[in-house]
Amino acid sequence: MKEYYGTTKGGVEISKYTLTNSKGSKAVVLDYGAILDQLWIADSKGNLDDVVLSCPDADSYVENPCSFGSTIGPSANRIADAKFTIDGVEYKLDKNDGENNLHSSFPKGLNKRIWKAVEKDNSVEFSIEMEDGDLGFPGNKKFTVTYTLTDDNELRIDYFGKSDKNTIINLTNHSYFNLGGHKSGDICKHVVKLESTEFTKIRAGAIPTGEIVSVLGTELDFSEGKEVGKDIEKDNDQMKLVNGYDFNYVISGYDGSLRLCSTATDPVSGRKMEVYTDLPGFHFYTGNWINNAPGKEGMTYGLRAGMCFETQYYPDTIHHDNFPSAVFGPDRDYKSTTVFKFL
């Protein structure tokens, strides 16, 4: 159901769309940035609460430095030195994270644009086009992102991208989850299990070195499940670079099929979420840089108020031949699916 959400100071009118299912769950998505604004899920006693962090109004989404709920693209995560070469041509991007590029562009990325919306059976399909050279990326491109809320209590996100030139396409959703409800404080007591025993090691600037390293027996190891806060303040050289967990985990046994990559449980509310992806990696981020961010319902979000599970190709994959390729073009369309399932 389409409704008016708000208008920015710049005169951009934003619409919202509400999806519901037979279990009483509700998702609210915006045509601005194809953003997930609300996600209401019942706890173990049947009480509904909104489990994603969000901005309070239209103007806040124009800023949105934490990228709450955003569809990130055309390239999520980091590209070293804000440049890359495809088919012998060098392309330069915004240097917006030191000397590097993060999430394509903060003021003009796909999460800061109005998408065309088409309502379908309990889903909304958002689409948008980008011209060759827009934000520095080659190719005339078209993207679609479809949100579906199923009666199995799954929020499914289907992505599609097409380009007439070889280019980088690496889309993700940047929602921050707090299964206790977005007003419940930090997520340090959440128990997380990651279906991964390796990660892409980073250097200063959170840029991958190219090494794929085991996490087993280290503070980065969630393969057996543990509280998020158990080791988050430990003296770990990798974690000190990013103030906590902010790492790309490698999907164990990746074969391109849709498979479980992570599980999160809030012991207080009893809510449990499984994350599924058909991509080779996912970025586990624990809100290490949230600092008095304005939120909905009068909230001010602080450090570790939410956590992200950003399904993706590896960061900076364009510069590492041993990483799965995120180059797509006339002979290779981009398709992927992410599922957030609530139990």
Topology:
Layout: E1 2-7, E2 13-20, E3 26-30, E4 35-42, E5 48-50, H1 58-63, E6 71-72, E7 78-79, E8 83-86, E9 89-92, E10 101-102, E11 116-120, E12 123-130, E13 141-149, E14 154-163, E15 167-168, E16 172-173, E17 191-194, E18 198-203, E19 207-214, E20 226-227, H2 237-242, E21 246-250, E22 259-265, E23 272-277, E24 281-285, E25 293-294, E26 300-301, E27 308-312, E28 327-328, E29 334-342
Antiparallel strand pairs: 1-2, 2-3, 3-4, 4-5, 6-16, 7-10, 8-9, 11-12, 12-13, 13-14, 14-29, 15-28, 17-20, 17-22, 18-19, 18-21, 21-24, 22-23, 23-29, 24-27, 25-26
Account of the 3D structure:
The protein is mainly beta. It has one domain: Beta-galactosidase, Chain A, domain 5, CATH 2.70.98.10. Helix content is 3%, strand content 42%. The strands form eight sheets. It has a nine-stranded antiparallel sheet with strand order 11-12-13-14-29-23-22-17-20, with no helix packed on it. β18 and β19 form a beta hairpin. It is globular and about 60 Å long.
Estimate what percentage of residues fall within beta strands. 35-45%
Number of helical segments? 2
The strand order across the widest sheet is: 11-12-13-14-29-23-22-17-20
- Strand pairing plus helix content: what structural class? mainly beta
CATH topology: Beta-galactosidase, Chain A, domain 5
Over the alpha carbons, how many angstroms does the gyration radius reach? 19 Å
| Global shape | globular
Number of strands: 29
Residues in helices, as a percent range? under 10%
Give me the CATH architecture, please: Distorted Sandwich
Low-confidence stretches: none
Tell me the number of structural domains.
1
Q: What number is the mean pLDDT?
A: 98
CATH class: Mainly Beta
Main pleated sheet: 9 strands, antiparallel
Distance between the termini: 25 Å
